[in-house]
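URGENT: need a sanity check before tomorrow's submission.

F., can you look over the Ferric oxidoreductase domain-containing protein record below? I want to be sure the sequence and structure line up before it goes out.
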Amino acid sequence: MVRHALVAMVATGLLIGFASVHAEWSPMHRWNRAFGDASLVLIALSMGLGPLTRFLRVAVPLLPFRREMGIYGCLLVLVHASIILVGWVQWDLMRLLGFEWHPELLAYVMYQHGFGLANAIGIAALVLAALLAATSSDFAMRRLGVSGWKFLQMGVLPMWWLTVVHVAYFLFMHFLSFHRATPEPNPLQYWFVGLVVIVLGLRTGAYLRTIRAKAALEPQREQGSHA
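Structure tokens as predicted:
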């Protein structure tokens, strides 16, 4: 419960901070982005914390917080998706996938290709996030068994990269359409790039360190077997 309370406080702080960054936007877009951005940071923290402990042993006590970070990240992204569904596409699932109703053709036509594809990618990431959050408990681990639970938790990597692609589209490409006025760039664009680079660097560095450590142990094992 202490971990839940601390992560909830961090999530609330992130939410308020991002809402202030987008204070000039319309309420729907302001809170849509605030919930999405706060969720992204929590998920990034849960992704980077494990590799970080390979370099900073003082970070090891923070490892148990990964579970709560993932859970609250999922809760925030559920609110993010709900705001889009209610406020942006107004419960029209075809609009969510980039289609608009054409009154002359009396049919839906593709209007925003990138918007539909990015949302489909976001939905896939949301499904994986919900699955991971639903199984982030000791009860789920006991029911699924360690191997089954670990297999499901491997979904965190595809979930992360689907999230990155989804966010990158809305930060860098969505408002570049020639038939609409281009707004000012989102001030968080390059903070997002930095966050992704840090997570990728930590995970790559931890992987390389693990490979080197295993390679260093191989001669010792061979000597032991010969002895």
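My own read: The mean pLDDT is 84. The longest helix spans residues 189-226. If you see anything odd, call me.
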